[in-house]
Amino acid sequence: MSKRNAAYPAKRSMNLFYKPDRTTKPATIALYVLFVLVCLLGLGKFLVYDLWAETAQAQQSLTAAEAQLQGVLLELTDYSEVWERYSRYSATEEERDLIDRMEVLALLDEAVGSTASMDAVSIGGDTVQLQFSGVTLAQTARIVKALESSPIVSYTMVNTAATTQSEGAPADDSAPVQASVLIQLQKEVSQG
User: Fold this and answer.
1) For residue 20, pLDDT beyond 80
2) Which pLDDT band, with edges at 50, 70 and 90, does 54 fall under?
3) 3-class SS of residue 176
4) Nearest 5°: phi and psi at 157?
5) Within 10 Å of residue 135's Cβ, how many Cβ atoms?
6) CB 185 within 8 A of CB 148
7) What sections of the chain are H helices per DSSP?
8) For the CA atoms of the chain, what is the radius of gyration?
9) Which terminus of the chain has fewer CB atoms gathered within 10 Å of its CB, N or C?
10) Tens digit of pLDDT for each residue in 29-50?
């Protein structure tokens, strides 16, 4: 083989940059250690501190709830006494089935109004006994008609009507009378 035909490897570029091995230098080791510490602190925050803070918050909430429970239990120590007073002043089942007395009194006030003088009102169960005076027979009829037009009145019955004049005087439609009316109440029927 001749020297001219011999092929030699040819290198066209050369890297003259020297890169020292830094893996064993103290500064590099310190950076690795610092990185590991930061990672451990981050994990510690998420895995330890946050759980601890959440547990402490739950403990505070539990303490507040227990204090509130103790306050409620303290208030309930006299529950039987309060229940006894409540049941004494609250309406019984029978009273709840009755018509509201304020509604009955409003009806009587509206029907009788200032035309007559109410002498006595007695309400028992579903009946009302009403005595009034100072009206004529015609005004008594209008009062009874106004009472009967109410949806809470089943019927009315005039028990007595007597003149207040002396016995010897002639009877007159314009003479004042004293009337006693029995009113039977009923629950208002809802129309639907």
Assistant:
1) no
2) very high
3) coil
4) -145, 125
5) 20
6) no
7) 26-44, 50-75, 79-89, 93-97, 101-112, 137-148
8) 51
9) C
10) 888 899 999 999 988 888 888 8
